Amino acid sequence: MIAFVKGVLAARLEDSAVIEVGGLGMQVGMSASSLSALPEAGEHVQVHTYLQVREDALTLYGFATLEEKRLFERLISVSGVGPRVALSALSSYTPDALSHAIMAGDATAVARIPGIGKKTAQRIILELQGTLAKDAAPMEAAGTGESAAAKQATEDLLAMGFTSAEAELALKDAPADATERALLQYALKRLGA
Predict the structure, then answer these.
(1) For 101, which of 24, 34, 40, 106 could close a Cys bridge (C-beta 3.0–4.6 Å)?
(2) How far is Cα 78 from Cα 124, in angstroms, rounded to an integer?
(3) Looking at the whole model, is its pTM more than 0.90?
(4) Helical spans, DSSP H, in the chain
């Protein structure tokens, strides 16, 4: 699994970006919102990635945030929703707005996504509504008191392959005023890594 790609942005295309990594140009499919978050060509960039492996192709998809990547992975787990449709969904809505529409059971809003009909919208809601609600509950309980350093340390742990439950447990009772690096060291020590 390729968790992220870090390199120099070589080109920004209509539905993807080309990132130069060690002399190779990697084409990474991205949503419109992730593409717009990229810097100018020639600048250093890092994107979270998902690798789709098929018999005839290896396709890399990129995301500006881990939240967007997680929602993409949830969407493609639904029967009838492939990576292109999931990217279309993330181009149409922010991850928060799409999650709220799914949790609220708003089939009309979900069906507005290009490539998703009414039946597929209902299937997405049926399959993801409970899962997204469970994911949202701990975040709402945590509130907005989490520092930027703690949020970044959590994202770093997720990028390393730890689950969100492991990351939450590892950062529990961490010093509130610690830097991102100190929090990461604290968490890794608690995880035994």
Answers:
(1) 106
(2) 6
(3) no
(4) 32-36, 66-76, 83-92, 95-103, 107-111, 118-142, 148-159, 164-171, 180-191
